[in-house]
Amino acid sequence: MKMRLKDGKTKVLTLSYDDGVVQDIRLMEIMNKYGLKCTFNINSGAYAPEDKVRESFSGRMKPSEAMALYANSVHEIAVHAYTHPFLEKLDNTEIIYEITEDRKDIESRYGVIARGMAYPYGTYDKRVMDVIEKCGIVYSRTVRSTEKFAFPENWLELHPTCHHNNLRLMELAKRFVESPSKYGNPEMFYLWGHSYEFDNNDNWEVIERFAEYVGGREHIWYATNIEIYDYVKAYEALHTSYDKKTVYNPSVIDVWFESKGKVHCVKAGETLRL
């Protein structure tokens, strides 16, 4: 058996953008225009004051602006630590505070369960990983670009494919979109960054061009980080008989797989006999 992705696809694309800045408004417009899905990582302790008067369209969002943008969208809101510290420089109690306070604010404000995360500054160590896992975090994104399309071996070290300023961005996108999956295995393109960088570098055309090229492809699943995590875990939870002719799906997610060259779907809670 080989894992297939939602609807039997072999490719998934996801994005991740940090800090909850006002440029996320323009970024989300681009995502929605081309049907992409993003995970927005928020520092709940760093919202701009509601009475702030903007001299320019920049900086952290106000709570009301964030609610208007993120709430009830198709995108994921995830943890980025309450005040964006270097987590590895904190003691365990301080790390727990940073993660749980961010989770509590996100969950109460947006009505979601926040299980995903991106490391502030991209820095972490094994102790940090152990502590955030105990705080209910199931995956956390790093900033170490791989330029590959692999799924993580450890979801608490979720390495992206590349940052949007990578000079090979469109080359990688073309390879992902147009090349067959290696050995028929599923592939994931993971793009990350900060939306304020598009203003700083005056290069919004980078994400517009990327989104236009990769969007609207029938063979690609567009998903948030947590949707991918949950799907992979549902596939890993499948039970098979000794002869591989019976498959039981104990999860609440429909799962696709390939067996002997044929793609099958085993629905949530279903026992499938091949």
Structure write-up:
The structure is a single chain. This protein is α/β, with parallel strands linked by helices and 274 residues long. It folds into 2 domains: 9-235, TIM Barrel, CATH 3.20.20; 239-273, no CATH class. Helix content is 31%, strand content 20%. Strands 2, 3, 4, 7, 8 and 9 form a 6-stranded parallel beta sheet that branches. The longest helix is centred in the middle third of the chain and has 19 residues, at 92-110. It is globular.
Question: What sort of overall outline do the alpha carbons produce when their principal axes are compared?
Answer: globular
CATH class label of the largest domain: Alpha Beta
* Average pLDDT for all residues: 97
Task: Report the order of strands and helices.
Answer: EEHEHEHEHEEHEHHEHEEEEE
Task: Return Rg in Å.
Answer: 19 Å
Number of domains: 2
Q: How many H/I helices?
A: 8
Structural class of the secondary structure composition?
A: alpha/beta
Uncertain runs: none
The major β-sheet equals: 6 strands, parallel
CATH topology of the largest domain: TIM Barrel
Work out the helicity level: 25-40%
Beta-strand fraction estimate: 15-25%
Could you state the CATH homologous superfamily of the largest domain? Glycoside hydrolase/deacetylase
What is the end-to-end distance? 12 Å
List how many beta strands DSSP finds.
14
Q: Architecture of the largest domain, according to CATH?
A: Alpha-Beta Barrel
Kindly list the characteristics that best describe this protein.
TIM Barrel, 6-stranded parallel sheet, alpha/beta, globular, 274 residues, 8 helices
